[in-house]
Design goal:
30% of the residues lie in helices and 20% in strands. It has 6 helices and 13 strands. The mean pLDDT is 94. The N and C termini lie far apart (59 Å). By secondary structure, it is of the alpha+beta class. A hairpin with a 2-residue loop joins strand 12 and strand 13 (272-275).
Length: 280
């Protein structure tokens, strides 16, 4: 499916991994006309890799860009690289991190702001930690399309996963993206979005509202029953979230609490939390 209408072709190949956390599936994006790049091979799924190769037809795949190393984005890299010999671009997972694809090995060490010259087009690497620490967004400079992985999703907000995920870094990364010349956002899940700054502003407001709701909810609970557990606080802060999503909401809530603790607005005692003014 073509998703761009500019000079540099962009085509989406939808992964076959639809689900609760992946929406309609992982988006793999092919960029270019003859010597192509691909963003996010997706999970280990020979059927999906074959679909990518069919779209390539007689053209060559020279670059594989990986936004981050969760199991729905990077594990297909090994098989696709074996079949094409493409250069692999991304960041390895941090040592000791869990729920990461430790099979992922980039061709070399890559850096924030580095530009990969692909001949027909150029791709700028934008380090965007928050969801996880090794997250990159990729800017297609000729079209100002930003491939956002899980940093920005269509119609939902990403889970922030401590300890590798970090709420402060997530908000800082969103602010950083607003400095880029953006015309569209191409997310790892969902459809293209054509109001980048509006989408980013909405995400920032949402996270700050959730942060304030965390502080208010914690003060209310603490004043009644003392320090609150993560589970009890999640019921108050995420009262607009379906029950089956609460375990994921708790992870992002923990990221909020860690940031608020660093800011001196909450504190923890063991595995429970209190607002700084609860007993003052």
């Amino acid at each position: 499916m073509a998703v761009g209408s500019g000079r540099v072709p962009v085509q989406r190949v939808l992964g076959r991994n639809a689900g609760l956390m992946t929406g309609p599936g992982t988006n793999s994006y092919l960029i270019g006309s003859q010597q192509l790049a691909l963003v996010d091979p997706g999970p280990v799924d020979p059927g999906h890799i074959d679909a990518v190769l069919r779209v390539l037809a007689s053209r060559s795949l020279n670059w594989i860009f990986v936004t981050h190393t969760h199991g729905d984005h990077s594990p297909g890299t090994v098989l696709l690289q074996q079949k094409t010999g493409a250069e692999v671009i991304g960041l390895s997972p941090s040592a000791g991190s869990t729920h990461q694809d430790h099979s992922f090995t980039p061709s070399r060490i890559y850096h924030d702001g580095e530009v990969i010259d692909c001949g027909e087009f150029r791709v700028r690497l934008v380090h965007s930690p928050g969801h996880v620490s090794n997250h990159f967004c990729f800017l297609l400079e000729e079209e100002n399309i930003l491939f956002t992985g899980d940093h920005i999703l269509e119609g939902t907000t990403p889970v922030i996963l401590p300890p590798d995920g970090n709420m402060r870094h997530y908000l800082e990364s969103l602010t950083k993206l607003k400095t880029l010349p953006l015309s569209a956002l191409a997310p790892g899940h969902g459809r293209m979005m054509d109001d980048p700054n509006g989408v980013i502003d909405t995400l920032i407001r949402h996270r700050l509202r959730r942060e304030q709701k965390t502080v208010t909810g914690l003060l209310e609970l603490s004043s009644v029953s003392g320090p609150a557990s993560l589970e009890a606080l999640a019921l108050r802060v995420y009262d607009d979230v379906p029950q089956h999503l609460l375990p994921w909401a708790q992870r992002t809530l923990l990221a909020h609490l860690i940031k608020l603790e660093e800011d001196g607005r909450v504190f923890r005692t063991g595995d429970k939390w209190s607002g700084v003014h609860a007993y003052g």
